[in-house]
Design brief:
Length: 582
């Protein structure tokens, strides 16, 4: 029954002729593992196409919903993390395989006459694949994608003459937004797939027209004597290697549980931009071209490199394909590959040993975890930056970075002009503060350093009782704390001389009624120069330009610090800089 159906299908469609056309292709000189890269690329391309179609059925190309749609695939859709991970890691696999394929073709001298067009279409396929990657990593509209793309569009803007115009075309305006996302999505799912399909089909056609380029140094008679058909031996090698690549991609996907997804893109943040690994060499090279020379790194060198790559068959017209006969070309290619590898490794090594970058990376990972936790409660229909409004503490953290971190430090990041607010008003923070208020980590860089509060010299038990009393003032009326053991210590240490007795007498400076509570912190933010706050010692601006919601969020963040650990700085060591070099 099956054979009759296959006979019928062959009679109507002629599929057996197609299979013979594929399988009977002669492999001049015999099968080899050196020929497997092209077929592996086709296999990975089909994986990318299949997973891309699935992802497209869930994706929403708008700044308000892109991140949420990707989060939904990653976290909610059954095996969505697997599909997205295969697509993500498959993109890197395509870049690696294309590089290896071009390198093998170069070593074999397979770019020479009559295969010039084979080489040129292969080089163009590399460009299109990189363009796929470039347009793809913006689509999640997360921090990494947004800032990495902003670096690329800035590079485009340096192209002489048309740079700014081309940048606006890519962005859909003067800044990145929904039009940018829509255009990148259109390129990623329409224009680039069409270009890749055409170039791949043309490349395969040229390959079948000219055949496999055998290894150099063998006579025509020897090559013909060892020629075998494509099926089954070379097919087995191609499928085995292709399967190995797919298994590696699958392994990376399982190891990473999909693909990275950072917090929603925030144009106002101080995120440290880094491109994907396959663009790191260009990112690294740009550091050596500054000012008016920047265009050399952003435009001149890439154009020269692509031109030389395309023109190679016409520059090297000799008939001898032996690497020894082409030693100059081999040395040149070796130098280029070495430079690219070194320039790729340098920023990776530098970032791994840069405390500021590592701190930023940890912060980005924390933000991503918090964003996903909030999204699990419900994704807002408004822009994804409003996701943080669901959590006042996280909203306050972002406000703190925007408005307070020039002077204050949290988690080792920020300025040193004001006190470190990491672990603010926690037990450890208060203990360290009372022992030395003029410490550089507290008020050592302010007017309080010379004329302010003296260290509290008390035995440890009494100091702990005083700290417990001060912490209790945040949520308990002072009248209810009259019998608190720390209340007597407060008077013994003569704290009431300046701060008054909470709930009873007026202070000269810094009222401690409700110390660390919501109302007290609101007053510090809105009226820092009031006589019963910091008075003439205040160097802090008023935050009355913030909305009521923003004030509440900032207060929530500051109050949450008492649950965070307080870390002492090394003597004389500055806090980490606010950000690493972009």
């Amino acid at each position: 029954m099956a054979s009759k159906f296959l006979d019928w299908l062959d009679d109507r469609a002629g599929y057996r002729r197609i299979l013979r056309w594929i399988g009977d292709e002669p492999v001049l000189g015999g099968d080899s593992w050196a020929y497997v890269f092209g077929s592996a690329l086709l296999i990975v391309f089909f994986v990318q196409a299949a997973t891309g179609v699935v992802l497209a059925t869930y994706y929403s190309a708008s700044t308000a919903h892109a991140w949420g749609s990707v989060y939904y695939v990653q976290e909610k859709v059954t095996l969505g993390w697997l599909v997205r991970g295969l697509h993500h890691w498959g993109a890197s696999a395509m870049v690696v395989l294309l590089g290896l394929h071009l390198l093998q073709v170069f070593i074999w001298g397979a770019y020479k006459k009559p295969r010039e067009l084979n080489w040129m279409t292969g080089a163009l396929l590399l460009v299109v694949t990189l363009a796929f990657s470039l347009t793809g990593y913006l689509l999640p509209w997360d921090q990494k994608g947004y800032w990495a793309t902003s670096v690329v569009t800035s590079i485009v803007g340096t192209i002489p003459g048309i740079g700014e115009w081309l940048k606006r075309v890519l962005q859909g305006g003067n800044g990145m937004g929904t039009l940018t996302l829509t255009r990148f999505y259109a390129f990623h799912v329409f224009f680039l797939p069409a270009a890749l399909t055409f170039l791949t089909a043309f490349h395969v056609y040229l390959f079948r027209r000219h055949g496999i380029t055998p290894r150099w140094g063998r006579s025509r008679e020897e090559l013909e004597a060892t020629t075998v058909p494509f099926w089954p031996r070379q097919v087995f090698r191609d499928l085995a290697f292709g399967l190995l690549v797919v298994l590696v991609v699958l392994g990376l996907t399982i190891w990473a549980h999909g693909a990275p997804l950072e917090a929603p893109a925030d144009p106002a943040s101080d995120y440290v931009a880094r491109p994907e690994w396959y663009f790191l060499f260009l990112f690294s090279a740009l550091k050596y071209f500054e000012g008016p020379w920047q265009v050399v790194g952003t435009f001149v060198l890439p154009v020269v490199a692509l031109t030389l790559l395309l023109a190679l068959p016409f520059l090297d017209r000799g008939s001898d394909r032996s690497p020894r006969a082409r030693w100059r070309q081999m040395v040149g290619a070796g130098c280029i590959v070495t430079v690219v590898l070194v320039l790729t490794a340098l920023p990776i090594w530098h970032d791994a040993h840069d405390p500021a970058y590592q701190a930023q990376a940890r912060r980005a990972a924390d933000e991503a975890r918090r964003a996903k936790a909030l999204a699990a409660k419900g994704i807002p229909v408004r822009p994804m930056t409003d996701l943080w409004l669901q959590d006042p503490v996280e909203h306050g953290r972002r406000l703190f970075r925007a408005h307070c971190s020039n002077c204050h430090t949290v988690d080792g990041e920020g300025g040193r002009e004001g006190p470190d607010l990491g672990g603010y008003l926690s037990r450890d923070w208060l203990l360290a503060f009372l022992r030395n208020p003029a410490d550089p980590q507290f008020y050592g860089h302010t007017k309080f350093a010379e004329e302010g509060m003296e260290p509290v010299d008390l035995p440890e038990p009494k100091l702990l009782a005083l700290v417990d009393y001060l912490m209790a003032l945040a949520d308990t009326p002072a009248k209810q704390l009259e019998q608190h053991p720390g209340r007597a210590v407060y008077t013994e240490a003569e704290c009431d001389d300046c701060h008054g007795i909470p709930g009873e007498t007026e202070p000269l400076l810094v009222r401690l009624d409700g110390y660390g509570g919501e109302a007290w912190l609101r007053r510090v933010l809105l009226e820092p120069s009031a006589e019963d706050v910091y008075g003439e010692y205040s160097e802090m601006p008023r935050f009355d330009t913030l909305s009521e919601q923003e004030i509440r969020a900032l207060v929530a963040f500051l109050r949450a610090q008492r649950r965070e650990p307080f870390r002492r700085h090394r003597e004389g060591a500055p806090a980490s800089e606010k950000g690493a070099e972009r």
